[in-house]
Amino acid sequence: MNFAQARTNMVDGQIHTAGVVSPAILSAFENTPREIFVPEKTKDIAYSDKDVSISRTRFLMEPMIHAKIIQAIQPQSTDVALDIAVGTGYSSAILSTLVTTVVALEADQKQIDKAAKQWNSLSACNIVGMTGDLTKGVPEQAPFNIIIINGAVEHIPQALIDQLAEGGRLMTIVRKKGAHKGTVTLVQRSAENNFTTLPLFDAAVPLLPEFKVKEDFSF
Predict the structure, then answer these.
(1) Position 154 confidence tier, pLDDT thresholds 50, 70, 90
(2) Which of 91, 112, 161, 184 is most buried, by the most CB atoms less than 10 A from its CB?
(3) What predicted TM-score, i.e. pTM, was given to this entire model?
(4) Is 33's pLDDT higher than 80?
(5) What is the DSSP string of the chain?
């Protein structure tokens, strides 16, 4: 398979036509080899217009949705980004071309080690892989200019919102319990304790189990 041509087709046919016009973002998707971040058995569908499963709980988001999210969060070259639930590291590789530093957070060290191999192969030296509770973020590295949660959530933890810098933006897909689709949602911090929440567009993205609302049990 000609993966370079597949990347071009993905950008021209899925991303650009969906209204993503930032040259930097289009270049990031065209020059980051998506196929090295998926299992061998799914390389032939790496550039399809759907989510691609990479493990039981992780996936690469549909390219069009992923690119629209990044354009909406408006990354700047001076930004420090927190990328949550990075899986094999593709999302962090994309961000690394758009910001000054990416803190990539996963729950499992083995997953981060695998991702780091791919980042190294791309000479993406501005990504710092870290492990921990995804819902708690990385407070010791805060504040962050942008935070992206790579999947649907039933709630946005306050601990993550609190890690936004002034002017910082958080983006994820909020999906109500039991719903099939969610809403891409932007949270922005305009002052120390002043936050605005803006729903942007609907998206059917898998739910991250770490961000399920815990049920209360009564006896």
Answers:
(1) very high
(2) 91
(3) 0.94
(4) yes
(5) --HHHHHHHHIIIIIGGGT---HHHHHHHHHS-GGGGS-GGGGGGTTSSS-EE-SSS-EEPPHHHHHHHHHHH---TT-EEEEES-TTSHHHHHHHTTSSEEEEEES-HHHHHHHHHHHHHTT-TTEEEEES-GGG--GGG--EEEEEEEEEES---HHHHTTEEEEEEEEEEE--TT-S-EEEEEEEEEETTEEEEEEEEEE--PBPGGGSPPPPP--
